[in-house]
Please model this.
Amino acid sequence: MPIIKPKVQLLDNEHKKLIFDEAKNILETQGVFIENQEAIELFSQQGLNYKEKLFYIPPDLVDKCLESVPNEITLFDREGKEHISLKDNQVHFDPGSAAIFILDENTGEIREANSNDFIKFSKIVEQLKYIEAQSTALIYQDVPKDAQDWHRLFISLSNCHKPVVTGTFQKDSFSIMREILLTCRLSEDDLARKPLAIFDACPSPPLKWSDLTTQSVIDAAKSMIPSEFVSMPLAGASAPITLLGSITQHCAETLVGVVIAQLAKRGAPLIWGGSPAVMDMKHGTTPMGAIETMMINIGDIEMGKLLKMPTHAYMSLSDAKIPDAQAGFEAGMGALLAGLAGINMISGPGMLDFESTQSIEKLLIDNEIIGMVKRFLQGIEDYGSPFALDILKDFGEKEELLSHPSTLKLFRKELFFPSSIIDRKTRDSWKKLGSKSARKRAREEANKLSNKTPIKPIDESLAKELKQIVSKYLR
Amino acid sequence: MSQENLYGEISDAIVNLNEEKARELANKAIGKNLNILNVIEEGFGAGIRRVGELWDAGEFFLPELMRGAKIMQDCLDLLIPHLQGGIERKTLGKVVIATIEGDIHSIGKTIVATMLRAYGFEVYDLGADVPAEKIIDEAIEKNVDIIGVSALLTTTMLGQKKVIEILKKKGISNKFKVILGGAPVTSKWVEECGADGYAGNAVEAVELAKSLLHR
Model:
């Protein structure tokens, strides 16, 4: 146990309460846009009136629904082995999801992706030590549009055993995706007990729940598959410019998801997540690497923790177009802050250019960053006093401490060991090896990793079953 | 006060983002029965052009640009009913704009509409989640020059293509320029759809609309 668990905090209890109360007030007085038929029925059964596509949700219904949300979710891998838990301040990372472009590490070109890119991507994620979950990170163009969501789940699970953060682009896909997940489990019950995938559900700011998003939450709830809410207020454009205002709006939008899910199935597993941003007032863009974006994220998470829900955020992303210095420092700041905020699932590694472009080079650099973040989060350990006195006595005899028993015993515990992507060589040896940048070292590592034998190769019969589903649905 | 002074004051009110003052001056011009077309062009038009220059120079940010555009639009709404005897205000062109069916994201589309209006286009904003057929009906009825279709989702993007397909089927695709917008839109997609262009942000959208109509 560390002396102090490192932590960052931006809101005090008074403000958390004010935000929560105001968010409920917004839902009761401003109303929320709902157009999904099943949700309309669920709300109507609660005696709520539906006027001009708006429901006005009373605070006691919100409170009641919050009561039945599980405090933690344990995710299992493809083979059904316990993998990670989203609870307390446990921190896990997955690659930023659903990029519409890839930065080709071999040509340096930003282009549309194809399925081979995603196969390579998934194989590499399988190998990464510090990124414990995978995501359906790339949208590729060589499958029909109506297969673009579910086909990614097939490729990810065929090439990587880690649990997967995913989502639907159309209502019909959910049942196909559930069928894909079920190939990895004995039954629906088994899938509910051992969740393998998280489904992202993105309300549209301000306070709109689209048909697709709402249906995804309802379908997932009924199958006890975790939904992850990704509310994305854009401060100054579709949300108040104040950080506090944006956090309050996020809270209101996300509470709607809680109500929808719990009305569909009491006890459905949910994750309090988001992808807020501030608007760049010069370029009209949505910078994920902006420090204020990160601050809103942390505030949102503190609200989720207040409500005792597992948490998620899009952090450790960059708006740079290539893995350059900006990409490094934005991802580094984001990852460290996200870790200090104790966010359970952090989506972002690899992502550039406002959540639009995945880069394997950046993914590998981010993996190193995350290794360091995790070391930081372990804090400073007290192995017993005196802390230095006895060891320094020994120094007098030997004039070095490398061979000291305490060094040998503890150096592997005390230090994080980066891969060769992080340069700690002397200048001369760096020069001898070609004076390579971190990006170039990451590129070389990518090609090595994609050819490695999988850590957990997929069982042949499972691979066959997955392919059969694809041939059934691919038109 | 001479007319030139009034024009200058109007222009200043726009640049200072002083809504109250701008409305007051618009009403004054109406009360004095001035040539409204000149008031629009040399007062308000000059003001919004200065706002555009400040934006180009990096001194104004989006909230200032949008606010200026909004004040300009509100004043035009006051003034246009008072245009003298059958004179029609010459605009840069007519645009119908909407977010496509199935997609309820409206923020980008709304910003583009405001900016186009500010720069002198006549804009019909149909809102979000609008069927392709309705966009086209409106375009025909209002006899517009440009159809702008926004989509934020890779799935709803198909609706952008549908607009162009329907135009072709009706044999009227040469009557309109079709421009696309939204995060997933690329030049390749524009080509695939047979659209006339796309813009990455609202300022580029204005440039695109102008260049398509050779303004």
Observations:
- Chain A has a mean pLDDT of 97.
- Chain A has 17 helices and 20 strands.
